[in-house]
Fold this sequence. Notes:
By secondary structure, the chain is mainly beta. The protein has one helix at residues 13-16; strands at residues 2-9, 35-38, 48-51, 54-60, 68-72, 81-89. A six-stranded mixed beta barrel has the order 1-5-2-4-3-6. Strand 3 and strand 4 form a beta hairpin.
Amino acid sequence: MGIYKITNYCSCYECNGQWTGYLTRSGTNYVEGRTVGVDTNYIPLGSKIMIDGHIYIAEDTGSFRGKVIDVYVSDHSKFDRKYKEVYILEG
Length: 91
């Protein structure tokens, strides 16, 4: 898929605004190590993607656009921003 900007978000109001307390866009609960938010123009919901050898599922969207992946973390203090190679897994 190429190089994407990888950011983090959690369940707090600062990260989710009016959507705080709701399920992900695909209707699942947020799970650290599994849930990521994507721009569905680039990655469809439900896709399995790999970043640094770890597999995540595109379960959410966000207010961002383009080659950005927002990785869910359980604690706001874990926020980070970096650029990484992203692979989409088939099947």
